[in-house]
């Protein structure tokens, strides 16, 4: 089995566990299978992801991977939440970040920093803070198809 075919097979096994509901209401945000058998599974849920959840899902996936003869029991599995360093990919992720500030890169190369105010079926609504204190915030609707990447920004000391 080629490395590419083996990686696809492992991805299929892991994705099946989620699709079959074996991992609860959590879903895969990103899945990386490296040639050295390092497997990174980044998960999310509508209410977020706890360390205990990552541990439980890791155990479920380990039982699947341990039974996989092509691995020979040799692999490194990492299950974690995507964190702020990974972009939002799914509508479900945007929903829990309403009210937070996002850094958005558009396919047109424009970059926006704005507060996410609401989500529609095919777009998000944001409020862009004015550069000067005399102007009002600008409301803007951005279709999902125009978003190249969107990251939640970390705000320190703001209430």
Give the H and E element order: HEEHEHEEEEE
CATH A-level architecture of the largest domain: 2-Layer Sandwich
Give the strand line-up of the largest sheet.
7-6-5-4-8
Total domains: 2
* Portion of residues within helices: 10-25%
Rounded to an integer in angstroms, the radius of gyration calculated over CA atoms is 19 Å
Taking the alpha carbons of the first and last residues, their distance comes to 55 Å
Query: Would you report the number of β strands?
Result: 8
| Rounded mean pLDDT score | 88
CATH topology of the largest domain: GMP Synthetase, Chain A, domain 3
Describe the protein's architecture and organization:
The chain is of the alpha+beta class and 159 residues long. It has helices at residues 3-19, 51-66, 91-95; strands spanning 27-33, 38-44, 76-80, 101-106, 111-119, 123-128, 138-143, 147-152. A five-stranded antiparallel sheet has the order 7-6-5-4-8. A three-stranded mixed sheet has the order 1-2-3, with helices on one face.
